[in-house]
Design a protein that fits this description.
alpha+beta; 3 helices; 82 residues; Glutaredoxin
Length: 82
């Protein structure tokens, strides 16, 4: 499972999510919504920040929008692992 974080440089909550992902020790691929519109359209991202879990074929498994605490992020990931 891999993770994509959709953000924009002007987005305050995106910066908070970045900090919380770092505190949680979660590796992810950042996707700038202002410059990578094709990827945003592919995953139908309409709000920022959006954090998406994808499988090895790049199919979406789950997502959340907005900010979660470091513990909340870990719990979300744990829930995906069963």
């Amino acid at each position: 499972m891999k993770f994509l974080k959709f953000y924009a440089d002007w987005c305050g909550p995106c910066k908070v999510l970045t900090t919380n992902l770092e505190k949680a020790g979660i590796a992810y691929t950042p996707v700038n919504a202002d410059t990578e519109e094709d990827i945003c359209m592919f995953y139908n991202v309409r709000n920022l920040p959006t954090f998406i879990a994808i499988d090895e074929k790049e199919k979406e498994i789950a997502r959340f929008t907005g900010v979660k605490s470091p513990d909340g992020i870990k719990q979300w990931i744990d829930s995906l692992n069963g």
